[in-house]
Amino acid sequence: MTNKSVEALLDDIRLLGEEQLTLVEAVRALMGKTIGPVSEEVKYGGIMFSSGVPFCGVFAYTGHVSVEFGSGADMPDALGHLEGGGKRRRHLKLHGVKDIQAKCLAGYLPMALEAARNRA
């Protein structure tokens, strides 16, 4: 069940563009298929996902949607799709729905959860 603050954020994302809203909704749907039930919280201007521990967030921008991994530096990246060079965080930039499959997001989600659990 979606809480009111998530619904309000989705309404705001709709103002950025239908492509961004479609991408955010696709990430949320993939989360349910890949991880199962997760809690969602609006934080830092995006939707943060938790399953025992917070492990991932989705953020909409004018030109793309970013899927952020708080413990991304601890994740294996054999495919080389993760971006960012910070101490801990990594992200995937999605410019269209095709990027979800092209950048193997479904494979990164369980790794993000495992990395966050290992860090906790």
List the helices and strands and how they pair.
Blueprint: H1 4-16, H2 18-34, E1 39-43, E2 46-50, E3 54-60, E4 65-69, E5 90-94, H3 98-102, H4 105-119
Helix pairs in contact: 1-2, 2-4
Query: How much is the average pLDDT?
Result: 94
How many domains, as an integer?
A: 1
Structural class: alpha+beta
Number of helices: 4
Topology as a string of helices (H) and strands (E): HHEEEEEHH
Task: Look up the CATH topology.
Answer: Aspartate Aminotransferase, domain 1
> Which word captures the global form?
globular
Using the coordinates above, name the CATH class: Alpha Beta
Roughly what fraction of the amino acids lie in strands? 15-25%
Poorly predicted tracts of residues: none
- C-alpha end-to-end distance: 26 Å
* Largest sheet data: 5 strands, antiparallel
Strand order of the largest sheet: 1-2-3-4-5
Helical content stands at 40-55%
Number of E-state strands: 5
CA radius of gyration is: 13 Å
The CATH architecture term is: Alpha-Beta Complex
Protein name: YdhG-like domain-containing protein
InterPro entries: YdhG-like
Domain YdhG-like: 24-109
Please characterize this protein's 3D structure:
By secondary structure, the protein is of the alpha+beta class. It has one domain: Alpha-Beta Complex (Aspartate Aminotransferase, domain 1). It is built from 4 helices and 5 strands; from the N terminus they run ααβββββαα. It has a 5-stranded antiparallel β-sheet with strand order 1-2-3-4-5. A hairpin with a 2-residue loop joins β1 and β2. The radius of gyration is 13 Å and the shape is globular. The model has no long low-confidence stretch (mean pLDDT 94).
